[in-house]
Design goal:
mainly alpha, 1% strand, 462 residues, 2 strands, two-stranded antiparallel ribbon
């Protein structure tokens, strides 16, 4: 079933991918990947561990790092300032522009990436030197919202189409090197709404006003001129921005409907406090789904919001095994979108639950083969020895754990399956290929040599 237009629109805003690859396409991607998921996660975790160790060492800190580590700022203000609230963002940027305390690189890495978890893809011009002029123009246009049918630029900014070189573009729109796209877009739109209101031009800009968390009198004035449907959409935007005061106003004074879309928007953008509000005050089910069967956990994992994934699991006890209309779990979506931290967390949680006998999902061949292509020998042992899965079990296309391990060149796992679980090295998938055939086809020399040596000592079963 294709993903709905609404889900696609949500994903585009967050830079996530909603296309669902077929099983055969996913297998092909895994076999072409130079590293297994387990290796990628291990590398990421090793980098983080090194970074934490380095941070503890005595060394010279940049001024921006000193600002962020200062207890008065760290504990009382900066990390609690919401980048989607226009007044909060102005306070953060004031440290850079007025006080000269926070260099661009520290603002990007420590505040937007570190405290708020924005992925590198959100900083549209961060790698401007590697882009063409047209690519830069397209990204800049994409970062500027449309209000009243026309694209809005901040006062003093020229239209990007009037610029001719990369240097001109990056000088004019330097903010897009260190401010995430949606934060920038929300700030530009929110500031424009304020200018229009002050000029007496109160139009239909409630959505952007709610997204930017403008003052309540402004929100109230705009809401009074809106239809009921616009009020409901505005409530979703308030949830996406993490603005509890705006959401409460829309509900109490204008009867806004609060539904699962509000919860999903909050999860997509990492607003844990808003999730708590929606669940505890408004009674939403943390396992509620949208029209595609996607939960808040699916979306948080898809968008790489690892803090929110943990929050949903550890505070709200959401079902990590819940599947969407196509049978995909949050772990599947995390892997599909390259959200390695989310995938590693959900995978470890799955293993822990299996070990404790608390696993609520299906213990089946899909779970077993996924352990094999990750090179997770401990999970393989657990599924065979405790849950009685057949190590020669195959999925609908005849792929066994050995096919995956051999095609990916996971020598250790191939040997583990053969020597500990005595799997059938001659078993063929539906197209007639064995694990050896796949290893040879993909150039996995060590696996191929090992399996070839076994051919003479392990004849096919009669």
């Amino acid at each position: 079933m294709p993903v709905s237009k609404k889900s696609k629109a949500k994903a585009r805003k967050r830079g996530a991918k909603t296309t669902r690859d077929s099983a055969s396409t996913k297998r092909a991607k895994r076999l072409e990947d130079g590293f297994t998921a387990a290796e990628r996660c291990a590398k990421r975790l090793a980098r983080e561990s090194e970074a934490e160790r380095y941070a503890r060492d005595d060394r010279d800190l940049t001024l921006g790092e000193q600002v962020l580590r200062n207890p008065l700022i760290r504990d009382l203000s900066l990390q609690d300032l919401n980048p989607f609230k226009l007044s909060d963002l102005q306070s953060v940027l004031g440290l850079r522009e007025f006080y000269k305390l926070l260099p661009d690189i520290d603002l990007k890495e420590c505040y937007f990436e570190g405290a708020w978890g924005f992925p590198k893809e959100e900083f549209l011009l961060a790698n401007w030197r590697e882009m063409s002029v047209e690519e830069m123009k397209e990204k800049v246009r994409d970062a500027h919202p449309k209000l009243g049918g026309r694209r809005v630029y901040p006062p003093g900014k020229v239209e990007v189409d009037t610029l001719n070189t990369k240097e001109e573009i990056v000088r004019a729109f330097w903010e897009l090197t260190y401010v995430p796209k949606m934060v920038y877009m929300t700030a530009v739109a929110g500031a424009q709404v304020l200018r229009l209101v002050k000029a007496g031009d109160v139009g239909k800009d409630l959505e952007w006003a709610c997204r930017a968390g403008l003052d309540l009198p402004v929100i109230r004035g705009l809401a009074e001129k809106c239809r009921e449907r616009d009020i409901d959409v505005a409530a979703e935007r308030a949830a996406a921005g993490g603005h509890a005061d705006v959401l409460d106003l829309l509900v109490s004074e204008f009867g806004a409907m609060i539904d699962d879309d509000c919860l999903i928007e909050a999860a997509m953008w990492g607003h844990d406090a808003m999730i708590d509000l929606l669940v505890e005050r408004y009674g939403l089910d943390p396992n509620g789904v949208d029209e595609d069967g996607l939960t808040a956990l699916h979306w948080a994992a898809c968008c790489g919001c690892v803090r929110t994934v943990k929050h949903l699991v550890e505070k709200h006890n959401v079902d990590i095994h819940k599947r969407d209309v196509d049978g995909w779990t949050a772990l599947d979506w995390a892997e599909e979108n390259g959200s390695t931290e989310c995938a590693a967390y959900l995978r470890e949680l799955t293993y822990t639950q299996l070990l404790a006998g608390e696993y609520r999902g299906d213990v089946d061949v899909e779970l077993f083969t996924s352990a094999a292509w990750r090179g997770d020998d401990a999970m393989i042992d657990l599924l065979v020895e405790r849950y009685g899965l057949d190590p020669n079990g195959a999925d609908g296309d005849g792929w066994t754990a050995l096919h995956y391990a051999g095609g990916l060149g996971l020598v250790r796992t191939v040997k583990h399956l053969v020597e500990k679980h005595n799997v059938d090295i001659h078993k063929r998938k539906r197209d007639g290929k064995t694990a050896l055939d796949l290893a040879e086809e993909k150039g996995r020399t060590e696996c191929a040599d090992y399996l070839r040596t076994l051919q003479s000592t392990r004849p096919p079963p009669s």
